[in-house]
Amino acid sequence: PILQQKVQNQDDVQVSIEAARESMTLLKNDNATLPLTAESVKKILVLGPTSNNLGHLSGGWTIQWQGATADLWHGDINDEQFYKKGITILEGIQNSAPKDIEVDHILGFDIHGNEQDMDWIIERIQDYDAFVVCIGEHVYSELPGNIHDLTLPQGQIENIDKLAKAAGDTPIVTVLLEGRPRTLNSIQSNSNAILQAYLPGPWGGQAIGEVLFGKTNPSGRLPYTYPKYAGDMNMNYWRPACDLFDPLYEFGHGLSYSNFEYGNITVDGQLNDASENVQMLVVGEKEKAVLVNVTNTSPVDGKETVLMYIQQPFRTVTPPAKLLKGFQKVFIPAGETVNVRFSVNADMFRYTGLDNIPQGTIDNGPAKVLIGSQVFDFEVVDPSTE
């Protein structure tokens, strides 16, 4: 009883909701489909197997090994048997939708893609101004979660195909619940907007609803490269620069309802000048201060996740295209500019090679710092090798 009183107290709930808000990653938003507003829609239909299920929000190792939802490992389970508290996606949408927007719900198809109510939906397709389709993968952990194909269940893909064909120009917003990137195939082209919600926990539905209606401005970034095809499992952003690279969404991708512009990078107060006076990054010397201005050019307050990469085009062994060496999430009010500071030093360019290349090797030569669309050129120097 004492433990039950401590678990999911109000402070814990707020931390859980805030973590979900910060992680929401908007992958696609054609023609500003999101946020949904009372001006753009009057009636929406929420459907899909993860739309009203707390177990799918939480994933495996929740309540028990394979999660709190029905599957072949432990039979039928009622969510209420496990969860006393939580907010499903449907409930989060109902909580966040303006009072003038009517919200309907029907399952449509189950997590395996088996059709249940799609004919009912198609018959009433003209009744709705937008569709929110909540899909994803079955909860799992460890060995039972192993799969041989990254593609989402074919039935989920086919049911969204069917919906899109009937919906015509009516927008489709797809919400993904998944613990790994599952290839989307035609879901990508059939969706006007795609929100990657990951596995946000039993309170994650509130954060999802807030993002869909603009009460929370999404600021999450992908922590992996999202593959376009099932065979792209080894596609990483730090690939060798010469490798072919055609992902669906690159590592670090994430959209916002705000627009941000990056100003010139300065290092120790100096602007970039690749033609002359190139700054030196010398092994053993102090780090250099990297500053970049980020401006919110939109009328919407927002958070921007600023990523700093390094790049060394020429090395003894084939270099990676780039490596992430710093990131900061900063709040920027509409129309304002903030200065974001990082540090860079020569040790960031150390690497471990093969055969007779010792651990912690640094190659002398040109290098770059990349932040947004901005670039700063350096010369890396190790005096011990000269």
Automatic annotation (TrEMBL):
Keywords: Glycosidase, Hydrolase. It is an enzyme of class 3 (hydrolase). One of its GO terms (biological process) is carbohydrate metabolic process. Residues 304-375 form the Fibronectin type III-like domain. Belongs to the glycosyl hydrolase 3 family. The keyword Hydrolase applies. This is beta-glucosidase. It holds the Pfam family Fn3-like.
